[in-house]
């Protein structure tokens, strides 16, 4: 496993690799689009938004390195799932996996579950595959995959930041009870997505 000091450099390299080249730089291509369409995609589905928000909220609730390690790992792993979706590699029960991510992450927040960081990373990593797969499988024919992926990674990061901000803010109010209540409500929302 690489040294923790190398992690920022690896993240920067991954982000630079995902950037479109100058010759291919475009915002929208036809109806599908590139960066903007990818950016809009995580914002267009409440199920995706809730799960991604929970990753930031849970990381803030856990504290320490988890405040940044969970929200950074999720979109990076999500890209791998996206590549699977683009390639058409079968992944069963994608929508159920997304709904379960909301239930599990909401319950983790509601129950104030603080597992070891590696276990939290495994949990969010499994769910990131499902979320990324959905994004990749829904890639419009007109979209440039690199632009699209970069767009949904940026939007995902912003949703994580919102979850972190709310989590850190709620930690100070009533001893974190508001964050736990919010996690419970989000988990119930996941039940809706599972049965709907």
UniProtKB/TrEMBL annotation:
Highest rank taxon of the organism: Bacteria
Short name of any one Pfam family annotated for the protein: HupE_UreJ
Record carries keyword Lipid biosynthesis: no
Membrane-crossing residue ranges in chain numbering: 41-60, 72-91, 97-113, 118-136, 148-170, 177-195
Record keywords: Membrane, Signal, Transmembrane, Transmembrane helix
InterPro entries: HupE_UreJ (IPR007038)
Signal peptide boundaries: 1-25
Identification of the protein by name: Urease accessory protein
Protein's organism: Rhizobium wuzhouense
